[in-house]
């Protein structure tokens, strides 16, 4: 008999963290778009293509990596995906030309394609049929949180800066 979700919470947390990391990569570019447009003189169209490159790469690679998950094992594919994600983010951070940014986004999409099917299969393996829908719901939540985290952090940071500047202004007027 399989263990319950409560008994597997550490494993499930690690798996959900992997999904969170993978989908954090999708929205990574959105908060820095204005800076890239100004600094690298990129168009909005190019930025849209950079966002789409990640998703397209994931779409193309997912069926292949899904087969590899069954052939080589869930853990190995998750580790490869996380390694590729780290490389992709490093390339993105160091990129000074749009072609390097495309390379980073495509590699990031490949990494998400490795992580997603492996984590989903792993969760299916460790949960009972009765608890599987709940666990898959957690995966969906981790995806959503990963995608919106970049946006939320930028909004929170902007609000904090605004409050600090407003407070400083009020202190100077005293």
Automatic annotation (TrEMBL):
* Coiled coil residues, start to end: none
Q: Does the keyword Ribonucleoprotein apply?
A: no
Q: Which UniProt keywords apply?
A: Membrane, Transmembrane, Transmembrane helix, Transport
GO MF, one term, reads:
transmembrane transporter activity
Membrane topology per the record?
A: Multi-pass membrane protein
Question: Which residue numbers delimit the Major facilitator superfamily (MFS) profile domain?
Answer: 11-174
What's a GO cellular component annotated to this UniProt protein?
plasma membrane
Q: Does the keyword Cytoplasm apply?
A: no
- One Pfam family assigned to this protein is MFS_1
Compartment(s) where it occurs, according to its Swiss-Prot or TrEMBL record: Cell membrane
Q: Which residues cross the membrane?
A: 12-34, 46-65, 77-96, 102-123, 135-168
Specify the domain of life of the species encoding this protein: Bacteria
InterPro entries named among the record's database cross-references: MFS, MFS_dom, MFS_trans_sf, MFS_Vesicular_Transporter, Sugar_transporter_CS
What is the name of the protein in this document?
Answer: Major facilitator superfamily (MFS) profile domain-containing protein
Q: What is the scientific name of the source organism?
A: Heyndrickxia sporothermodurans
């Amino acid at each position: 008999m399989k263990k319950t979700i409560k008994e597997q919470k550490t494993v499930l947390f690690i798996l959900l963290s992997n999904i969170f990391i993978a989908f954090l990569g999708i929205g990574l570019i959105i908060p820095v778009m204005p800076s890239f447009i100004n600094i690298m003189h990129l168009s909005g169209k190019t930025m849209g293509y950079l966002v789409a490159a990640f998703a397209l790469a994931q779409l193309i690679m997912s069926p292949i990596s899904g087969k590899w998950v069954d052939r080589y094992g869930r853990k190995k594919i998750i580790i490869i995906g996380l390694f590729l994600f780290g490389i992709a983010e490093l390339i993105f951070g160091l990129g000074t030309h749009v072609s390097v940014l495309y390379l980073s986004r495509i590699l990031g999409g490949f990494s998400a394609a490795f992580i997603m099917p492996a984590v989903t299969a792993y969760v299916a393996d460790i949960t009972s049929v009765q608890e599987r829908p709940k666990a898959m719901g957690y995966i969906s939540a981790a995806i959503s949180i990963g995608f919106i985290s970049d946006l939320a952090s930028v909004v929170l940071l902007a609000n904090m800066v605004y409050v600090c500047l407003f407070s400083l202004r009020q202190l100077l007027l005293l």
